[in-house]
């Protein structure tokens, strides 16, 4: 089962553009954590995200797209990064999340990734192309 | 995690998860102290039992892994002390025992001093090599690897291999005894031996993978899990011996093969052949990972080994967006290399198919016909199946029909038989 561990750092919603993790010790601890997942053979990918002040939100009032640049005034929780892992159970995913050297202001949300096989057959037919869309480029 | 008591079911699930994540490391650490994987597993299990008892009362501790490791180590030290006493009492100690004793002493001091930053990587590597030791039968290596490295229960292993649990339990008990009797050292073999022993490790992993991949019968829900487990173990070994090209080759092969899982079976359970598969249903994340692992194997230089070559072949299919875009000349060339490196009638048969796709059915048929007398392929349904296909393409329908009928009679898989009989019937109504 694939799970996404979503890192939600409180305060990140108002972080200035260009904010980047600079606490060497914390980054080192996080790298050790990533490495432990890699060595356990379960890490599929992980990435950090630039703060929302560098992003944009596209909404659809009246079904028409509307673009708003970040930071977003009402946002209470925003993503700081994520891990995708492949483990046998939800309990395993949670257990891995508990091992993260997170700081006081961080929350990790554990979410299972939908597999095509989870969909009913008629929906599967519609989503069949999805897998081939997932060849994400990694630099 | 909070220390507040939780409901039992949740605690059990957590303990199971902790065990799956930590058991191999704990067993490996303890095995280095006591020099006996069987005993190490027992001590680790003891720690697990203590956890089950205590955590239901007190809740799961903040660092369950450290807790389990500490308890297992403490029990190991107790055992060593006990052994030391017993040996003193025994009085007459042989030379060999003396040596062992000295080792145990050294370990004893080492263990006492050991902080939690032990070199777990080396311990795990020792554990893999010990579980896959050549003194054990292949089945025993597979069972022991899944048990010690994968943290699977005997029940789970038994279900995966469709054998009674008692058989698996027996195999594991006997395997541990054999290791002890053969005085197999808990170590990573030295340089010259490493390669041969690594081959045994890779073989075990691939066996586990194939057991999951080629669902031949029965209760199949555990089997995709076996593929996952083999891939996970493969990735672990790849990180433990990152310089060995073949490890990355095997990981690449497993990932690319596994990428096709969802497309391999049709809606009514019938097998779907590679070229007819809906490629949109392939798991492109696994293909990507497989290609990355193959690139690692290639970057290590030297000629590709058998696993990397097979991965390179699988990669040709993985890269092709449609069956028609498949680079058959390259696949044929890779099969040539594979046939030279590890010749076998089955490789030869596959090479024939690749040649026919690249250079026409007649070229393929020549190679297939050379295999007709091959004793190893008598009774192998794919020989007449491939031959029938080539004859069909050459317009020799009557001969093709006989081959498909023969193939249908030889296969033991009902789905496959249906498919072959349909192809035989199609020979009666050849395309205009």
TrEMBL record, chain A:
InterPro entries listed in its UniProt record: Dimeric_a/b-barrel (IPR011008), YCII (IPR005545)
Domain YCII-related, residue spans: 2-115
Pfam families: YCII (PF03795)
Highest taxon of the lineage: Bacteria
PANTHER family, alphabetized: BLL7163 PROTEIN, BLL7171 PROTEIN-RELATED
Family recorded in the similarity comment: Belongs to the YciI family.
Name used for this protein in its record: YciI family protein
Organism of derivation: Variovorax paradoxus
Automatic annotation (TrEMBL), chain B:
All residue ranges annotated as the RNA polymerase sigma-70 region domain in the record: 26-84
Domain DUF6596 stretches: 197-297
Keywords from the named record: DNA-binding, Sigma factor, Transcription, Transcription regulation
MF annotations from Gene Ontology: DNA binding; sigma factor activity
Residue stretches making up the RNA polymerase sigma factor 70 region 4 type domain: 129-179
Family matches, as InterPro entries: DUF6596, RNA_pol_sigma-70_dom, RNA_pol_sigma70_ECF_CS, RNA_pol_sigma70_r2, RNA_pol_sigma70_r4_t2, RNA_pol_sigma_r2, RNA_pol_sigma_r3/r4-like, WH-like_DNA-bd_sf
GO biological process entries: DNA-templated transcription initiation
Pfam families, A to Z: DUF6596 (PF20239), Sigma70_r2 (PF04542), Sigma70_r4_2 (PF08281)
This protein's record includes keyword DNA-binding: yes
Family: Belongs to the sigma-70 factor family. ECF subfamily.
Protein name: RNA polymerase sigma factor
Source organism per UniProt: Variovorax paradoxus
